# Entry
Amino acid sequence: MVGRLRGSGGFIISLVVLSLLPVAACGQGSSDRDSEGLRELASQYTAAWSSRDAAKVASFFAEGGSLKINEGDPSVGREAIAAAAQEFMTAFPDMVLEMDSLRVEGGSVEYHWTFRGTNTGPGGSGKTVRFSGYEEWTIGADGLVADSKGYFDEADYRRQLDPGVEGS
# Structure
């Protein structure tokens, strides 16, 4: 995947998710508490990415969980998710992920993020990137991410990695 990252810019952040506390149908107070818990978990998930601990990132997914970014092939299972995250972290050794927002409406969860990093890993371009995206999460019965579909502007990402573009 790093080859794809360096070459085409097709692989990118696999920002993924964490546990979602079930939203009980017993009133607004319970829903508020669950949203607060989810925000804390999202904060911990963000910290895992910024700490560059791929196994920790993968632990937010169910054993058979899936992560798909844009039109790429999904990474299925914690081992595959950890491997994808590690390749990405190697390509951007100074990466930092920031949580922009977390939107919870009914059963729908969207995790919005901004990524910053310099492509100085093996064979990297040396260019700095900054871009935003989001993931749509499906939470399994175990409270972990069962499926994550991520989206970002791939053309903007590739432009920032282009060696002919100044100021990236």
User: Anything to note?
Assistant: Residues 1-30 have pLDDT under 50 and may be disordered.
